[in-house]
UniProtKB/TrEMBL annotation:
<keyword id="KW-0747">Spliceosome</keyword>
<dbReference type="GO" id="GO:0006397">
    <property type="term" value="P:mRNA processing"/>
</dbReference>
<keyword id="KW-0508">mRNA splicing</keyword>
<dbReference type="GO" id="GO:0071013">
    <property type="term" value="C:catalytic step 2 spliceosome"/>
</dbReference>
<comment type="similarity">
    <text>Belongs to the SPF27 family.</text>
</comment>
<protein>
    <submittedName>
        <fullName>Pre-mRNA-splicing factor SPF27</fullName>
    </submittedName>
</protein>
<feature type="coiled-coil region">
    <location>
        <begin position="148"/>
        <end position="175"/>
    </location>
</feature>
<dbReference type="GO" id="GO:0000974">
    <property type="term" value="C:Prp19 complex"/>
</dbReference>
<keyword id="KW-0539">Nucleus</keyword>
<keyword id="KW-0507">mRNA processing</keyword>
<dbReference type="GO" id="GO:0071011">
    <property type="term" value="C:precatalytic spliceosome"/>
</dbReference>
<dbReference type="GO" id="GO:0008380">
    <property type="term" value="P:RNA splicing"/>
</dbReference>
<keyword id="KW-0175">Coiled coil</keyword>
<dbReference type="Pfam" id="PF05700">
    <property type="entry name" value="BCAS2"/>
</dbReference>
<dbReference type="InterPro" id="IPR008409">
    <property type="entry name" value="SPF27"/>
</dbReference>
């Protein structure tokens, strides 16, 4: 069974008793998020049984992480704790520095080879970074402009889509309002006609009752006259 609200002609929803009853019906049709935050809507679980199992049921690690995130304490997730205020959030530059021996004569050949290898690695990394910066300086501005053009085109397309959907919604609401107002006028006329019919029936019932009463009275008079005549005949 399906039903549709009639906001343009039905004002009963403003009554507290009716509003509480409607809200209770809506709440009964929704899943209990407190009992199961990842539960699906009953209609979705019925129409799509494959989606009924909990999220990440096939992956225990993700399921455990989701449970930790959902069952957080005091509004703070136990899975992603807040960073400590005393933590050092600076950039670690140790990977980009090359330690210099204080006494080169005491450094072993193996340590020198490790230093040379690290220096070569740092040189290659910095060379790659410099090349990337040079390419960014030459092509970065145009690439950024092209990216902005793509974003603007995407936003414009989304705005057109939103506008089209809004127009469709407005058209549907206009048709719905016209249908409800037309139905409301028909209901008003039908209610008036029903009231008139009931009043006419009531008048007819009153007339019939009056006629029955008058008929009973006249029958009584006729009976009394007949009794008097019979009594007179007996006396004579």
């Amino acid at each position: 069974m399906s039903s549709d609200a009639l906001p343009y002609i039905d004002n009963q929803y403003k009554l507290p008793a009716v509003k509480s009853q409607v809200d209770a019906l809506i709440s009964s049709n929704l899943p209990s998020t407190a009992a199961s935050p990842t539960a699906l809507h009953p209609s979705v679980a019925r129409d799509f049984p494959d989606l009924s199992p909990p999220l990440f049921a096939h992956n225990p690690a993700l399921s455990s992480a989701l449970d930790q995130l959902v069952h957080s304490t005091n509004g703070k997730s136990t899975l992603f704790p807040a960073p400590s205020p005393s933590a050092d959030h600076g950039i670690d530059l140790a990977a980009y520095s090359l330690p210099t021996p204080t006494d080169p004569s005491s450094v072993s050949p193996a340590h020198w080879r490790a230093l040379v290898t690290r220096a070569a690695t740092l040189h290659a990394h910095l060379t790659n970074q410099m090349q990337n910066l040079e390419l960014l300086g030459v092509y970065g501005a145009n690439a950024w402009r092209y990216h902005l053009m793509q974003v603007e085109a995407h936003v414009e397309a989304l705005e057109k889509h939103v506008k089209a959907v809004a127009e469709q919604v407005a058209q549907v609401n206009e048709v719905r309002k016209a249908e409800q107002e037309n139905a409301g006028q028909q209901l008003d006329r039908a209610s008036i006609e029903l009231l008139r019919t009931r009043m006419s029936n009531l008048r007819a019932l009153v007339t019939v009752a009056h006629m029955e009463h008058e008929l009973a009275r006249r029958r009584g008079e006729v009976g009394m006259q007949q009794g008097d005549e019979d009594a007179m005949q007996v006396d004579s």
